[in-house]
Amino acid sequence: MTAYPGLITSIEVDHAGRATVVLHDGTRLPYDDGRPRDAQQALNAPDIRTMLAQPYPLGPVLVEPAPHMSPGRRRVESFFLALYGHSKAEVAANCRPVAFFGQTIRFNSRYGAADAFARVVASLQGLVAQHPEMRRYLLPASGGMVWRTIAGTKRLSVHSFAAAVDVSPRGNPYWRNLPPGTNILTTRQAFPPAIVAAFERQGFIWGGKWAEFDLMHFEYRPELILLARLARGERMPLADIAHLVHQRG
């Protein structure tokens, strides 16, 4: 509710304590459906609790992530359809152009995503002005709305919703292109932490912190950044949601 004001209209709790999240478009999602999941099932069909379960690690990369520890890769598709648009045409209608170092990237304007991306760009411009060598980590970038499934899956990519950007592919590998179990800690650590921090400050997560690494990839996930900040004791403004919780008869 704090990360996406207006998306959730109510949280209904039944007598057994099971919560259902009701979205503005009428979508009803169980918070915890009680089903056990292995790593693959958690990716293919998560509930909201599963989507939020893996903590995103703010700050510098110090160690290789544990197997399957990729906070943000678990996505409840219905949640994102309600967020950004239920079809390619609807998402496209919600986009606006954001200038990115001479390129134009169309980003979803709903729930503050495009505004957050524009603030990231402003920070990056300041960084590059002081450290021109950082430009090579950013350009050429790709983003905007690319309605497609994730390679090897039936799940929609977050790029479908125009809520992610891929920076320069040069030297920024993708996990499917390297042998399983490849340790790329030094490559993760070589990516400028200042660039990652500029994105994280505005609610973006970095695929370079995933076990199934995607070092080019940044996506707008303010709920995960909020949880990470709260977990490390930062004082954050929280919405008063008491009036939105209803007991169901």
The oligomerization state is: single chain
Question: Average pLDDT across residues?
Answer: 89
Following the backbone from N to C, one meets helices and strands in this order, namely: EEEHHHHEEHEEHHEEHE
The coarse overall form would be: globular
Low-confidence stretches: 238-249
Q: What is the straight-line distance between the termini?
A: 24 Å
Label the structural class: alpha+beta
CATH architecture of the domain at 57-74 and 86-239: 2-Layer Sandwich
Helix content: 25-40%
Please give the order of strands in the largest beta sheet: 3-2-1-10
CATH topology of the domain at 57-74 and 86-239: Muramoyl-pentapeptide Carboxypeptidase, domain 2
The largest pleated sheet is described as: 4 strands, mixed
Count of DSSP strands: 10
The fraction of residues in strands falls at: 15-25%
Rg from C-alpha positions? 18 Å
Number of helical segments with 4 or more residues: 8
CATH class of the domain at 57-74 and 86-239: Alpha Beta
List the helices and strands and how they pair.
Blueprint: E1 8-13, E2 19-23, E3 28-30, H1 39-44, H2 48-52, H3 77-84, H4 88-93, E4 95-100, E5 103-108, H5 113-130, E6 142-143, E7 164-166, H6 185-190, H7 193-201, E8 204-206, E9 217-220, H8 222-231, E10 245-247
Parallel strand pairs: 1-10
Antiparallel strand pairs: 1-2, 2-3, 4-5, 6-7, 7-9, 8-9
Helix pairs in contact: 5-7
